[in-house]
Amino acid sequence: MSTSASSPPTIDNVEEGLALRPKFDAAGLVTCVATDAMSGEVLMVAHMNAEALKKTIDSGEAWYFSRSRAKLWRKGESSGQVQRVVEMRVDCDQDAVWIRVEQHGAACHTGRKSCFYRRIDRDGEGQALLTPVDAERLFDPAKVYR
User: I need a labelling partner for 49 at 20 to 30 A (CA). Which of 22, 29, 36, 124 fits?
Assistant: First the structure.
């Protein structure tokens, strides 16, 4: 993935250099945060392997690696809820990717715009509970994922 294969990665050239040198974890994955390019809303967090990262860069559409299904997938391939990449960034040590996307439809497999549709609150006894926020469904997952 590096655009400068001639020099080995060092802290300085990873943090300050211009070569893409993603630091994949032991499973070969890097975390990816997808946000709405217009609103800045966090839509989802997923993972990319080297192939998904390359396909995303090359195609301009979001590709991910599903840990639960152990396979590569293009966002929207079965639901039609495509993510067009507006900008990609990598964090300082290149172990996380941030993509700003134009989300066409819902980002979440539950049919919601964002995967982050529940706020963590406390009940009267101080116990954590979840409160739905912006939880309207844009599509019925039972009809989309057969």
Answer: 36
Which residues of the chain register pLDDT less than 50? 3-4
Rounded distance between C-alpha atoms, residue 78 and residue 146, angstroms: 9
For the domain that residue 91 is a member of, what is the CATH number? 3.10.20.810
CA dist 24 and 141 (Å) reads 31
Q: Tell me the whole-structure pTM to 2 decimals.
A: 0.88
CA distance linking residue 130 with residue 121, whole number of Å: 6
DSSP labels, 94-140: SSEEEEEEEE-S-SSTTSBS-S--EEEEE-TTS-EEEEE-S--BSS-
Residue 135 maps to a domain: no
The pLDDT tens digits of the residues spanning 58-85 come to 999 999 999 999 999 999 998 999 999 9
